[in-house]
Amino acid sequence: MNIYMAEERVSIYRGLKNVYVAESKICLIDHERGKIYYYGYDLDELAQKSSYEEVLYLLLHGRLPTRREFQEFLDRIRGSMRLDPEVLEVMKRVPKDIDMMEALRTVVSYMGNLRSRGPEYTREDVVDYTIDLVAKMPSIIGGLYRMWRGEEPLEPREDLSLAANLLYLITGREYDERDVRGLDMSLILYAEHGMNASTFAAVVVASTGSDYYSSIVAGIGALRGPLHGYANTGALEQFLEIGDPSNVERWFKENIESRKRRLIGFGHRLYRIHDPRAKHYRRWLEENRERFDEETRRVYETAMKLYEVAMNSFLTEKGIYPNCDYWSALLYYVLKLPKEVYTPIFAMSRIAGWSSHIAEYREDNILIRPKAYYIGERDKKYVPLDER
Ligand code: CMC
Question: What's the CATH code, domain 231-334?
Answer without folding.
Answer: 1.10.230.10
